[in-house]
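[Meeting: bench + compute handoff]

Bench side (C.D.) handed over the final construct sequence. Compute side (W.E.) agreed to return the predicted structure before the next meeting so the bench team could plan truncations. Sequence as handed over:
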Amino acid sequence: MIRSQLNETTGFAQQILRALVRLFPGAPTVASARLQMNCGYVYANAANQLDTDPGTPFFANLSACFNAALIAGATYQQFDTVRVLALGFAPQSAPAIAVCNFTIRMALIAQSRWLTAQSFTSRQAIDAYITRVQDAFEPAEITAADSMDNVSYVNLITLKAAVIANLSNTARTLPAMVTLTYPTRFPALYLAQRIYQDGSQSDALVAENLPVHPLFMPTEIVALAPGS
């Protein structure tokens, strides 16, 4: 690898590693300390590892950093910041392009694993994540298709389909939801009494609709269908 390519690729790699470490800004836990150690090792050795052909040790170690971040408790949104960071790069050399594409795919895998581990209670939340998954995978799929990387393309669409199927299956097990519209903003307690004749359901209404304050629910709310 020529010097300009190595400098570009190493620079991108080190930005990604710094982003992973910044996911946990507070006092380190055992897991986040391990993430910092892993990222620090890859950061220090990135140039040497990337200069090997084809740089396999670097990619294996970067993958381990994403796994360490997941173990440390990184969320879907946190991994998305790393994915978007890599998506915003404009790599010129083939090695830099490979690092950016690999980072995006590792972030998608980590997000998929995070989603699979969640216990959802809201169909609305599941629907929102299905949309986010579709939007997140699309750029990576287009990149793989444009570069005629058939293996990566098939892997991406297979993973996306599996994640969406898992979310959809989870949604089907949840109670049916309905959308209700009212002429003004009512308190959650009033709505719970009106819909269910049970004021204890007010917390569920708040959790589902996320109002600014429980005394002022939106005029259009999502609620568990009465009798479900």
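W.E. noted at the follow-up: The beta strands are 177-181, 220-224. C.D. will use this when planning the next construct.
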